[in-house]
Design goal:
The protein is α/β, with parallel strands linked by helices and 316 residues long. It is 43% helix and 20% strand. The radius of gyration is 20 Å and the shape is globular.
């Protein structure tokens, strides 16, 4: 029997510093029945010239800048693999990752296959450190999400997952309205479309941190609106799958965490989050603070502390 075909899809926007390393990490896989689809999302730097150096080994698609979610959808619609991996343009995968994940996927046909991951900073791979999570084990899909969201923030790094095509079709495409947390919403929906998540302990993704352009560090109305819609999507998907007290309690903590994050900058979104919160059990997640912020929050309350910090942030 021939090996199954795997499609790896990478959205690229102004990634000239890192995209070549990412491409090499894919082309170096021991598993070779791969198509690498790179979607240039309107780059204005040297990314396109770098991609052209590999045009005999990869499929390059060009489109006007529409965002990472739209680029991933474009890549998927041009793909032919029975398994799909979405990989970010600045992350790396170990040489055996695809082989190990495909092996598991063939034994568990209705599962999403996950992997280990950790952070390294800039180009210093020696700074790599694994980020172990409770969900690094085989679990039913809904239980995996509860575990991943245990501390309210789920780190769903796209490249750790290998997804059977029929599960992608069942879950639907990426939400192109979202920028911040588009991966969080997508993988919650996709995992819930599977029966289980199977952990590949022999596979590792190297997540590059400390980049100035990284979307995860964005703030402001547009980013916060995207985060609101992403959390709303996650919560609706979870409740549709299992509307139990534990799910509703998690939903309450997600909304309370969102309010902590955006207060006082987005009053309209806060009103909507508080309305959703009023229909759920009481949240018990504490205001995240350390040092002087923790001290002031204990003395004057978290809202006054946030207003104080927001005022001085605008002055600097």
């Amino acid at each position: 029997m021939s090996d199954p075909f795997v499609s790896i899809i990478i959205p690229v926007y102004n990634a000239e510093k890192f995209i070549e390393q990412t491409i090499i990490s894919v082309l170096s896989q021991s598993f070779t029945n791969i198509e690498l689809i790179v979607v240039d999302d309107g780059s204005t730097d040297n990314s396109v010239n770098i991609l052209n150096n590999y045009e005999s080994n990869i499929k390059i698609i060009h489109q006007p800048n529409k965002g990472a979610a739209a680029a991933r959808n474009t890549g998927y619609m041009q793909s032919h693999g029975s398994y799909i991996k979405f990989l970010d343009a600045d992350d790396l995968i170990d040489n055996e990752m695809v082989a190990r994940q495909v092996e598991l996927a063939q034994h568990y046909p209705d599962a999403v296959i996950s992997a280990k991951w950790g952070r390294f900073y800039q180009n210093d791979i020696s700074s790599f450190k694994e980020s172990p999570e409770e969900c690094w084990q085989n679990m039913q899909a809904i239980d995996w999400l509860f575990s991943s969201w245990k501390n309210v923030t789920s780190t769903t790094v796209p490249g750790i997952f290998l997804i059977p095509r029929h599960i992608v079709e069942r879950a639907g495409l990426w939400n192109e309205r979202l920028s911040l947390l588009d991966d969080t919403e997508y993988f919650a929906r996709t995992i819930l479309a599977a029966e289980s998540v199977i952990f590949s302990r022999d596979s590792t993704l190297y997540y590059r941190s400390g980049l100035q352009y990284n979307l995860s560090g964005r703030k402001g109305p547009e980013a916060y609106l995207s985060a609101f819609e992403a959390y709303d999507g996650v919560i609706k998907a979870l409740l549709a799958k299992r509307n139990h007290y534990i799910t509703r309690k998690l939903a309450a903590n997600i909304w309370q965490s969102f309010i902590y994050k955006v207060y006082p900058d987005c009053p309209d979104l806060i009103i909507l989050a508080e309305k959703a919160l009023s229909e759920l059990p009481e949240a018990d997640i504490l205001f995240p603070a350390g040092g002087y912020t923790y001290y002031f929050s204990q003395v004057i309350g978290w809202k006054a502390t946030k207003r104080f910090k927001s005022f001085f942030a605008r002055k600097t």
